[in-house]
Structures are given as C-alpha cells and as structure tokens.
From TrEMBL, chain A:
Pathway: Cell wall biogenesis; peptidoglycan biosynthesis. This is Lipid II isoglutaminyl synthase (glutamine-hydrolyzing) subunit GatD. The keyword Transferase applies. Forms a heterodimer with MurT. The lipid II isoglutaminyl synthase complex catalyzes the formation of alpha-D-isoglutamine in the cell wall lipid II stem peptide. The GatD subunit catalyzes the hydrolysis of glutamine to glutamate and ammonia. The resulting ammonia molecule is channeled to the active site of MurT. It comes from Paucilactobacillus wasatchensis. The lineage of its organism: Bacteria, Bacillati, Bacillota, Bacilli, Lactobacillales. Its EC number is 6.3.5.13, 3.5.1.2.
Automatic annotation (TrEMBL), chain B:
Keywords: ATP-binding, Cell shape, Cell wall biogenesis/degradation, Ligase, Metal-binding, Nucleotide-binding, Peptidoglycan synthesis, Zinc. InterPro entries: Lipid_II_synth_MurT, Mur-like_cat_sf, Mur_ligase_cen, MurT_C. The gene is murT. One of its GO terms (biological process) is cell wall organization. Its EC number is 6.3.5.13. The active site is at 356. This is Lipid II isoglutaminyl synthase (glutamine-hydrolyzing) subunit MurT. It comes from Paucilactobacillus wasatchensis. Zn(2+) binds at residues 206, 209, 228, 231. Residues 54-191 form the Mur ligase central domain.
Length: 235, 447
C-alpha cells in the first residue's frame, strides 16, 4: 500500500482523447508509484458536475474538432469549479483542445468563434489550410529543463499578460509560429500543444506536478524522498 | 475506347512492361503516363467494368482479397489492384495491365484510399461501395475521422446509385442520410446489455443529438450495437450478421454468418469483420453461402499482413501495426495463444510509419500482464519511446536493441519457441530485408 493517495480528474476523458494523451495519466501513475503514491482517476464528462474539493490534480486533453465543439457547450457548467481548483494552486495539465478551452476563445474548423471559459488569459486564432506538424523542442526559462514533444495543431495561441510560456521554442513552431513561445503556465496550470505525450517524454514535469499536489494535500509530510526522485531520460 | 484512350493505354502498358521486366517494380508510373495522355482514361475503363470500391481505415486489403476469392466462385475473372496501389495512378495501372475481357463487362474489385475515391468516381460509377470502418490513424497524415468520412462522401456523391454495403456496427456510417441504397452488416452474436465504451474510445457521440452513445455490446473499438438513450438513434437493421463465434485462436477463426459455419486461417476478431464484408458483397452479387465457404477455405496466402517465419526453429509471427485500434486487436489476438511466447515491439517513425509516435499510448499494452510472457524485446529508431511504453505497462526488463540489423540474431536467442513481432511499416521492411539476406524468407514485401 502506498503511503499517499492523489485523486485525478480526467476532464472529458471520453471525448477528448485523440492523440495518445491518456499516456499523460499513465506517466503520472508510473511516477506516483515511485513517489510512494497511489494515483486514482475519475473521468468527469458531459452533464456531470466538477467538484474541485474531490480532486488533487487534473488533466484536460485534446480531441477532434467535433468533440471539442460539443465540449465547449458543456464546459461553462464547470467553469466555477475549474476556477476554484486553479485558484487553490492545484496542478492541472491542459493539452491542445483543453488548453484552448481554458482561454477566452478559439476559432473552429468552419471559421466560427467558439468561446472558452476564460479562466486563463490567452486566445486562439486559426490558420488557413495549414497545421503545425512535427517534432518540437523547447526550453523552460525558469528551470532550464528541455522538453521534447510532437505538435499537430491548426490553432495559433497568443498568451495573456499574466501567463508565462511553458518554454521558448528551440526547434518547431510553438504557440503561434511567431513569438517563439510554447504552451503556458499560470499558477499551477501547465498548458501545451505537445503530444508525444508530454509527460511520458518529460518526466521532470510529471514529478513537478505530483510534488505540488502532494504538498497541497499533505503539508506536514516529509517529502524528501519524493523530492529527490531522479528522473531517467525516456526520449 | 477512343483513339486517345487506346494510345494512352498502350503507352502506359509499355512503360509497365519496361519497369516490370527491367526494374522489378513500377505500379504508379504507368498510370501517370496514361493519365497524362488521356486525363479521362478512367471513363473509358468504367464502360468495360462493373466496379466495386472498398475503403476504410483498417481491413481494406484483406476484405478486397477475400471479396475477390468469393466472387471468383461465380465469375471466371475478377480484376483487382495489388496491395498499396490504392491511389488514383495505381488504379489506372491496374486497368491498363488487365487481361482483355472477351464478352460483356468484367467485375473489378478495387481497394481505394479514402481520399482518392472522388478521383475514381468522377469517371467511374461503381455498382457498390464497401465501408469497413473508420478509426484514428496516423494523425499527422490523415487527420480526424469525420474529415476522412467527408472525403469518402465527396466520392459517394458522384455515384448516388451505387449500393453502399457498410459496417453497421460503426455509427459514423449511419450518421448522414444518403440517397444511395444502403445495406448493413455487423455482429449479432451475444445478448444485448446496456454498457458504455471505455473512456479512451473515439467516436462515441450520437450524431443526431450529441449525447454519449450506449451499447448493447461492443466488439472492439467503438464497434457494436450502439443506441442513444437520449434520442433513440440506434444501429440500423443488419442484413448480414455474424451469429456466433465458435472458436478463436491466433491462427484461425471459426464463426457463423447467418447461421452458416465458416472458418478462415487467420486470427483476430477484426478479420472476421473482413470476412463478413466479403460475405456481404458475395451475397449481394448472388454468390451462395456454400460457395463462400469454399472461397474462405482455399489458400492461406491471402492473409498477407501477418506472416509466419521459421528462424532456426523459432516460430516467428511478424505483424504490421499502424494505429491503436489495430494494435489493440493484435494484442487481444496473441493473448489467445495458449503456448508460451516472447514479445517483440519495433517502432520506427518515418513518414510511412507516421512520424508521431503518440499512438502507442492508446495501445493497451497493460493487458500483456494477463499472460506470463518470459521475455520482452524492443527496438527500432524509436526504441526509447516503445521501451518506456512497455515499462509503464509493467514490463520490468526488456532486451533493448536499437539496431534493426541485429534484431534477427537476438530473436534466435529468445527463451521461447514462439515469438510475436509487432512492427511498424518501415520496421517490417527492414526486418524482412535482414531475414531475406540470411535466407529465412525468399522474397521482399510488395511495397
């Protein structure tokens, strides 16, 4: 039996699941185990309420245009819960469609403007008949860590003033192909266009999220062993 | 045929002869030459053939091969295209290199790439389409399933009289009302309950009201007897059904269609769908159930994607994997093996493999823990990705061999007689090349 338990909310996991993003949850479970922690998962989907008090960590993945549009109609019902979750500094990973829906709006496949929930300050435009597809490498400016991933997106996202980039683009396109940023960090929310998936290729980020969730839930615990966990390169 | 078409055909034929004789290959260039001389060449062919078009993500090749065998029970000659030649130019080549028919129209059963259907139906009005399934597949190349279906429908729109023979267990083929006559095939082999698909399944929204579909049962992926508890949308009436699964092993499948007993010499539930599709086409064109039995029983060579190779006494089964739904079906199939076996996974990320390897995370490698597998091995250019995938799935200590030229040697040293090798497209080619050079197989694969 693990000493610690963490409960993860997989937002719309039955609809936004297209690009192998479930690997992020598998990676979190893998590293959690090494940190003497059991990570349990619940999918929170359409017409279900999201109670932030029930969860310690959250994952919001990407999907196909059609499913993402359906999710955009349901997610306003979960806005308050998500807002509270973020304000309590609980870690969340949002990839691709999930990233876009946390912002103000994105432009759908038919050119229509689809509102997000605006809990983060970015917005997303589209490109005409083009996608950013390929391997990508970025560097996180705070930690100096290098992250590897695969991007495949039509959206061009522009960050708000209180968001930091997840990293600076070394090779690839990033958020919009112009400003050399990739992804976003706001409080303990990590956003990215990375598939690969991001946490299977970049275990440091998985460790960072898990440590934060453990510190939130077990403020008095001695997490030295967890903090000292060495992440072996996987890419 | 017009003079221009005749000249174009002759030019294409001679280039095919040249390529075939001197360069041992060439399936799209003759088509290119012919089309350059006469852009409407397919129209001329269309007047001489009754054409059936087979399309979908998985199972095109085997469904086509089985359909040809089934229809050969009734027709002396059936034209078809070789594996991989399923784009416009390859199809033109298929026609120009065909035998001349003596009297009346000849039947042509063609596997056509989803996006190339419209280029064919622009000129040829087929008598029938077969839709096998649509799954997420190498998303860096093909895009999303709804986009792919739109491409298919663009082709169907130009042939509104063609009968569509579709997989009724796939809700996407029932999502848009079409003017074409529709016939559905599917599974009806077990009792109906009320279940939802596992969370990591794509295509589970009701196309009429956007609520999440429920299922009486699922066969694999999102295939099954779906229904929408919210608006009543449900699986259409099936004309041809699998009514019983009698015995499934990794190398053979025994099952009933419409209560007739059949056997095919290949494992995997997905291959029963391919047989069912071929049965449906056969019945539609007047082949009797008994004749179909004969067609299914003849010749193993048709099952090309899964190959048994003897390597110094090791029974190596080499299986091509390219997308998560196919991969999960292969894992289910090999887990039905009662003998001990070693498991080898080879991952490349060249264009033909799909340059995005994320899809391996949608593969249910965790299931391999159900079997006591004595040794795992990983390899290929992306050995790091596949090794970590297996580690996360609970595999403690795989042999890691990045260099595919050394994989054959390593296979010989594995602790079991049976070895399953799952590999992406270019990894299959590279491994086969090694095995051919070492004399374990005779010829290369048609690419």
């Amino acid at each position: 039996m693990a000493t610690y338990t963490l409960h993860l909310a997989h937002l719309y996991g039955d609809l936004l699941n297209t690009y192998g993003d479930v690997g992020n949850i598998l990676a979190l479970q893998y590293y959690a185990k090494k940190m003497d922690t059991e990570l349990t998962v619940d999918v929170i989907s359409m017409e279900e309420s999201f109670n932030p008090d029930d969860f310690d960590i959250a994952f919001f993945g990407g999907g196909q245009d059609y499913e993402q549009m359906i999710v955009s109609r349901d997610i306003p019902n979960k806005k308050n819960g998500i807002e509270q979750f973020i304000s309590e500094n609980k870690p969340m990973l949002a990839i691709c469609g999930g990233y876009q829906l946390l912002g103000h709006y994105y432009i759908g496949a038919d050119g229509e403007k689809i509102p997000g929930i605006g809990v983060l300050d970015h917005y997303t435009l589209s490109q005409n008949n083009n996608r950013f597809i390929g391997n990508i490498t970025i560097k996180n400016e705070d930690t100096g860590e290098t992250y590897h991933g695969f991007e495949n997106h039509n959206g061009r996202t522009f960050l708000g003033t209180d968001e930091k980039a997840l990293g600076t683009v070394i090779s690839g396109h990033g958020n919009n192909g112009d400003d050399h940023t990739e992804g976003a960090i706001y409080k303990e929310v990590f956003c990215s266009y990375f598939h690969g998936p991001i946490l299977t290729r970049n275990g440091e980020l998985a460790k960072r999220m898990l440590l934060k969730a453990l510190k939130n839930k077990y403020p008095d615990a001695d997490l030295t062993k967890q903090t000292n966990l060495q992440i072996q390169p996987t890419f | 045929m017009s003079l221009r078409s005749s000249v174009a055909t002759a030019a294409g034929k001679s280039s095919y002869w040249f390529l075939h004789t001197f360069l041992h290959g060439g399936s799209s260039l003759p088509g290119k030459i012919t089309t350059a001389i006469d852009p409407q060449i397919l129209k001329a062919f269309g007047q001489k053939y009754d054409v059936v078009i087979i399309t979908g993500t998985n199972g095109k090749t085997l469904t086509t091969a089985l359909s040809v065998r089934v229809l050969q029970q009734k027709y002396d000659y059936v034209l078809t295209n070789p594996t991989g030649s399923n784009m416009e130019q390859g199809i033109v080549t298929t026609f120009i290199t065909a035998h001349k028919s003596k009297n009346g129209k000849t039947l042509a059963i063609l596997e056509v790439d989803e996006a190339n259907i419209v280029k064919v139906t622009e000129y040829i009005k087929p008598i029938a389409f077969i839709f096998t399934n649509l799954f997420r597949d190498q998303m860096d190349r093909y895009g999303e399933i709804y986009t792919t279906y739109d491409k298919i429908l663009a082709g169907v729109k130009k042939a509104p009289n063609a009968t569509i023979i579709a997989n009724g267990d796939a809700q996407i083929f029932n999502s848009i009302d079409l003017p074409n006559p529709m016939i559905f095939f599917g599974f009806d082999h077990t009792e109906n309950k009320d279940i939802k698909a596992p969370a990591n399944t794509d295509g589970v929204l009701c196309p009429k009201c956007n609520h999440i579909l429920h299922f009486g049962f699922l066969t694999y992926g999102n295939l099954g007897s779906y229904f929408c508890p919210h608006c009543g949308f449900k699986r259409p009436e099936l004309t041809y059904k699998v009514t019983n699964l009698t015995q499934l092993t990794p190398t053979s499948s025994n099952f009933e269609i419409d209560h007739h007993q059949y056997e095919i010499q290949i494992g995997g539930l997905y291959n029963i769908y391919n047989a069912l599709a071929a049965y449906a086409l056969g019945r539609f064109l007047g082949v009797e159930p008994e004749q179909i039995k004969t067609a299914f029983a003849s010749d193993k060579k048709v099952f090309g994607r899964q190959e048994m190779i003897n390597v110094d006494g090791k029974e190596v089964t080499l299986i091509l994997v390219k997308n998560p739904v196919g991969l999960n079906q292969v894992i289910d199939m090999i887990l039905s093996d009662q003998q001990p076996f070693s498991f080898v996974a080879l991952l490349n990320a060249n264009y033909a493999d799909g340059i995005d390897t994320s899809w391996i995370w949608d593969g249910n490698f965790e299931k391999l823990q159900q079997h006591d597998i004595p040794q795992f091995m990983t390899g290929g250019e992306r050995y790091k990705d596949i090794t970590f995938r297996l580690k996360v799935a609970g595999v403690a200590d795989p042999i890691i061999e990045p260099d595919l030229t050394k994989v054959a040697e390593k296979i010989k040293a594995l602790p079991t007689k049976k070895v399953y090798v799952l590999a992406t497209y270019t990894a299959v080619l590279q491994l086969r090349k090694q095995l051919a050079e070492q004399g374990y197989i005779k010829e290369g694969m048609d690419a």
